[in-house]
Specification:
The chain has a single domain, classed as 3-Layer(aba) Sandwich (Rossmann fold), CATH 3.40.50.720. Helix content is 25%, strand content 30%. It has two helices and five strands; from the N terminus they run βαβαβββ. The protein has helices at residues 13-23, 39-47; strands at 4-9, 28-34, 59-61, 65-68, 71-74. The longest helix is centred in the first third of the chain and has 11 residues, at 13-23.
Length: 79
Amino acid sequence: MANVRVAINGFGRIGRLAFRQMFDAKGYEVVAINDLTSPKMLAHLLKYDTAQGGYMGRIGEGKHTVSYKDAVLEEDGKT
């Protein structure tokens, strides 16, 4: 069975919660996060989430990317 490809619209409290739930869940693949802020800020919000607690996994950020596990999310196709 193929994974469900998911795009998250907004990375506020609910968007981060959805991301965390699908992060390690089987059958889901987060392919996009639609938000107005930079990838660096998205990674920071996930690492230091005051509502849900900081994410314990490894999160990395580049100039135009956010990486987690084996996946890399690019900012609007920029590299």
